[in-house]
Amino acid sequence: MNRTPDFRPRRRTAAVLGAVALGVAVPLTAGLAGPAAAEPRIDNSPPATSRSQPYPYYANCHEVRLAGKAPLLVGQPGYSSRLDRDGNGIACG
Predict the structure, then answer these.
(1) What values do phi and psi take at 65, rounded to 5?
(2) Residue 79's CB: how many other CB atoms inside 10 A?
(3) Which residue has the higher pLDDT, 80 or 42?
(4) Read out DSSP for the chain?
(5) Is the dihedral of CA 68, 70, 72, 78 positive or negative?
(6) Would you say the pTM of this structure is higher than 0.85?
(7) Distance from first CA to last CA of the chain, Å, rounded?
(8) What mean pLDDT do residues 23-41 have?
(9) Model pLDDT, residue 60
(10) 19 and which of 23, 24, 65, 93 could share a cystine (Cβ 3.0–4.6 Å)?
């Protein structure tokens, strides 16, 4: 079975090697994607946070109760050990 070789890749390779030999900078993807291809964009913006609201801060238990969040448990937004007088993990209880 005789197959006709495809010379297009060899021509492109020869053109790139010839350009390199002449000292001409040629991108390796030249001619592969066409003129409309653009370089990939790198997104340097920080990732979006999962919290939509800022972490709440309560100065005292009165503010917690006014916000309707009492009692606060360890791990809940707004919990602070300074609001938990007896250290049992329940603030403003």
Answers:
(1) -65, -40
(2) 20
(3) 80
(4) -------HHHHHHHHHHHHHHHT----TTTTTS-TT--PPP---SPPPPS-SSPPP--SSHHHHHHTT-PSEETTSTT--GGG-TT-SSEET-
(5) positive
(6) no
(7) 87
(8) 59
(9) 95
(10) 24
Two tokens, residue 66: 């006014």
Cα distance between residue 37 and residue 22, in whole Å: 26
Contact 74, 88 (CB under 8 A): no
Q: Look at residue 43 in the predicted model and tell me its pLDDT.
A: 76
Q: What is the mean pLDDT of residues 64-85?
A: 95
Interatomic CA distance for residues 93 and 91, integer angstroms: 5
Q: Which residue has the tokens 């409309």?
A: 36
